[in-house]
């Protein structure tokens, strides 16, 4: 299975359960491994046969600008669903971390793996 990856994508978003987190955007870091729907681009070298990772990044930015999540788990799940459904990936692994959220801890986060259920 062929996979594209996005590492250390940093996005400012409202995330959290504390009152101050409802008003102050925090920087989160995302790392994604996205299984490609096919390996056709490897043979054709045509962009239209590839997965447009710039479009994936744009979609993530749009989502996080429009929606508040209380938990990193829910944010990761929502992004996983976008990747699986909109971009037709058969499998995705997503790590989401808050940066410096706890004194003395560089990152705290969650990692999930999901796969698309074929009808």
Structure described in brief:
By secondary structure, the protein is an alpha+beta fold.
Report what the structure shows.
The chain is an alpha+beta fold. It is built from 3 helices and 4 strands; from the N terminus they run E-E-H-H-H-E-E. A 4-stranded antiparallel sheet has the order 1-2-3-4, with helices on one face. The chain is elongated and about 50 Å long. The two termini are 20 Å apart. The mean pLDDT is 92.
List the helices and strands and how they pair.
Elements: E1 3-13, E2 26-35, H1 40-44, H2 53-66, H3 72-86, E3 91-102, E4 105-115
Helix pairs in contact: 2-3
Summed up, the helix count is 3
Give the CA-CA distance, first to last residue. Answer: 20 Å
* Shape annotation: elongated
The tally of strands reads 4
Rg, alpha carbons: 15 Å
Q: Please give the order of strands in the largest beta sheet.
A: 1-2-3-4
The portion of residues forming beta strands comes to 35-45%
Q: Which stretches are poorly predicted, pLDDT < 50 over at least 5 residues?
A: none
Largest sheet: 4 strands, antiparallel
SSE arrangement, N to C: EEHHHEE
Helix coverage percent? 25-40%
Average pLDDT number: 92
Supply the helix-strand structural class. alpha+beta
